[in-house]
Design a protein that fits this description.
Elements lengths: L4 H7 L5 H12 L3 H8 L15 H9 L9 H31 L2 H11 L4 H15 L11 H21 L5 H4 L5 H11 L1 H9 L6 H17 L11 H15 L4 H17 L8 H10 L1 H6 L7 H5 L2 H14 L1 H23 L37
Helix pairs in contact: 2-8, 5-7, 5-11, 5-12, 5-14, 5-15, 5-19, 6-14, 7-19, 10-12, 10-13, 18-19
């Protein structure tokens, strides 16, 4: 894929034809509420669809119930093992780098404010974490898994936001293109894949090139299941770097919504971390992972922990040495990583399953004119846009 200003500008005017048509029909027939109610009972792949489900929804669910035919399952297994080996680090990167990166794109921050509500940041974070955990299960694409229904619902969630904003004339399409357009969906895919890998590298985590490519590949599969045009998606990490660099230069900047969302993110995790001693660690990690310019745009406070966080790679290096030299140590650290991720997710979800319902309205005040080998370490592709 050749990434140019013209090609990316064209992507701003394209949504998701299948999901958009499904959502439009649900709302035109007054069936969105019925759909949401019945879809609460559809949480695992292969389960019988409930009686009374609107026909258009049933057709959508049947046509999107299998992964793309081109999926290489050996690569997906490598991605799963990569996740197991690095789950706590990936969770850290998703929370303190990928999400703030979304907030530093002003129109994306506005969309997040409209679709989730500023009062429920834990729901937004819980949905992201739960979705990733579902993806990396061994049976993610088999009967009984939770990933495929989650992906089907998220795709309709995006379409419903496009539906509301365009039909209520609350989106300046001439200036901003289609809400949650193909360019933004690919950009989000880059945040949750390449930017996560960048963050692991910044934390000093040793990764093989094979493991990093496999993790990126898994998110290509996710993108396909979320309605992203695969002809426009970067095929490897080098292409991904070119796309992400150009995307950020085209769109990143400060916004009131970005500041608000970041403040909520910091407050949320300060509540999750026991006590108050380590509260400054949260903004320090964000600043370390996204850099001072983006952190300043998001009004991330500076703290004495900013210096302390720079020692994190050294500490993680010690832990990785233990893991590499001791099978028992590797097992213990993997279990600790798993338990940490589960604890974080359970704190955010309050023990509930996120259902990803499509919103029937938006905020009224919204407005916008094996473990993978570490012997061949991965290094990020070089920046391509100054």
């Amino acid at each position: 894929m050749t990434c140019t200003e013209a090609s990316m500008a064209a992507l701003r005017h394209v949504g998701d034809e299948l999901a958009d048509a499904t959502v439009a029909a649900l709302f035109e027939r007054g069936e969105a509420g019925t759909f949401n109610t019945l879809m609460r009972y559809v949480s695992t792949a292969g389960a019988p669809l409930p009686e009374g489900l609107p026909d258009v929804a049933r057709e959508y669910l049947e046509s999107t119930r299998v992964p793309p035919a081109w999926v290489d399952w050996e690569v997906m297994e490598k991605a799963r093992l990569f996740f197991i080996d690095n789950n706590v680090h990936i969770s850290t990167a998703l929370s303190f780098a990928a999400m703030p990166a979304c907030y530093v794109v002003p129109h994306v921050a506005k969309l997040l404010s409209a679709s989730h509500g500023l009062k429920y940041p834990s729901k937004r974070m819980a949905e992201t974490g739960q979705f990733t955990v579902y993806l990396m299960q061994p049976d993610a694409f088999e009967t009984g898994s939770r990933f495929i229904p989650a992906a089907q619902k998220v795709r309709l969630l995006h379409a419903s936001i496009r539906h509301h904003l365009t039909r209520e004339n609350r989106w300046d399409a001439d200036a901003l293109g289609t809400p949650i357009c193909q360019e933004d969906m690919i950009g989000g895919q880059m945040f949750f894949s390449l930017l996560v890998l960048d963050s692991l590298h910044r934390l000093g985590i040793h990764m093989s090139a094979e493991g990093a490519e496999a993790y990126y590949y898994a998110w290509r599969v996710v993108g396909a299941m979320l309605g992203v045009d695969q002809d426009a998606v970067p095929q490897d990490l080098d292409e991904a770097r070119r796309f992400l660099d150009r995307y950020m230069v085209r769109h990143m900047g400060p916004s009131a919504e970005g500041v608000h969302l970041t403040r909520q993110l910091i407050d949320l995790y300060e509540e999750v971390v026991p006590g108050t001693l380590f509260d400054p660690l949260v903004p320090a990690l964000i600043r370390h992972l996204v850099g001072d310019t983006c952190a300043d745009w998001l009004a991330v406070p500076r703290t004495p922990w900013d210096t302390v966080v720079r020692a994190v790679p050294h500490l993680l290096g010690v832990l990785e040495t233990i893991e590499d030299r001791s099978p028992l140590g590797a097992w213990a650290l993997d279990r600790l990583g798993h338990l940490t991720t589960v604890l974080e997710l359970s704190s955010l979800t309050r023990g509930r399953v996120m259902h990803y319902a499509i919103p029937e309205h938006l905020k009224k005040d919204y407005g916008v004119s094996s473990a993978v080998s570490r012997t061949r370490p991965w290094t990020p592709p070089a920046a391509t846009v100054s």
